[in-house]
Amino acid sequence: MEDTNKKNNWLINHKKYFFILIVLIIVVFLTLKYSTPHFALSPNETSVKTYLFPVDSSVKDLFISIQASGKTSEKVAGYKTDPSYELLAKHTGGEIMAWTPEEYLKIPSELIGIVANSNSGDAQSILLADHEGGGQKLEAHILQPSGRDVSLENNNPDIQFFNYSGGIIAKISRPQLGNWKIEVPEKSTISIRVSAQSDISVLGFSVMELRPSRESGTGYFSTDREPKKGSKEQLGITLYGNNSKDRPEFVLVSVDAGDLVKVNLENNYQNTEVIDLMGQVAIPKAPFRVMVRGQNKDGGFYQRMISRIY
Which sequence spans correspond to the domains of the chain? Predict the structure, then answer.
């Protein structure tokens, strides 16, 4: 009887410690659960698609959005997008964003402006990719050149990001220079848009045609028509802010941002700020976007893309 009383007294005296222990376990569990964004790759995710893009010294602000589309948006975000809207957005360089009323109220007002500016003429496209993985996973890593995930920068005043049911939007001021990474599961259908406020920009791209000229008899002039698939076309592109000694590289890339055709175009005209490049290019039959890659005078690499799909 005495042993039983001692045992009961011990339990009573230590009851508060058991309570504290249980509270600590709950706090640790909730912290681990909610401190990791729902938009981060799980540790056992093995089949990953990686997108690389360089950030050069001309970039002032970096804008990133990763949005669910197709089957992914239906499964994860809970809405079904009109296919015609997706097609229009894809071919004009736009994107579809859908928030619930509750999510909209939580989005910082600065990020609402970012969404508008990242698709405006003021921002230059650095990476555009539409990944068709056929699956329904909505996960991603945005990795800085240092290797640190943007989602972990909660106390960094230069980084703003917002996770919601349909994706993520982020603004990075004074971004690290070098190669950035975006990792998404292979089994996902996701739209990726990276743009920046930058002094290097693509001013124009067009199919060139030989026409009569008053000055030289004949000359190449820009047209409004699209390149003919599977044929050879004379293409011209104008780049502003190029200050490197080397000629930039002209690339036609797939909708998923993979290289299709790489061409060294001839220098048609150049001054201290603008360079015109022109040359004959074998146009692929597959849909493509236009990319220019180069190197700054300070040695940093850059790339710029035209959002439209041809």
Answer: 2-35, 48-198, 201-298
Look at residue 162 in the predicted model and tell me its pLDDT: 80
pLDDT higher for 164 or 46? 164
Residue type at 67 in one-letter notation? Q
Burial (CB count within 10 angstroms: exposed 0-12, middle 13-18, buried 19+), residue 37: middle
d(CA 249, CA 100): 42
Hey, is 198 helix, strand or coil? strand
Q: Which residues of 74-106 are buried (b: 16+ CB within 10 A; e: fewer)?
A: eebbeeebeeeebeebbeebebbbbbeeeeeee
Chain mean position to CA 26: 36
CA dist 233 and 207 (Å) reads 7
pLDDT digits (tens, 9 = 90+) for 183-231: 998 888 888 999 998 888 888 899 999 888 776 677 788 899 999 999 9
Could you give the CA distance from residue 98 to residue 96 in angstroms, rounded to a whole number? 7
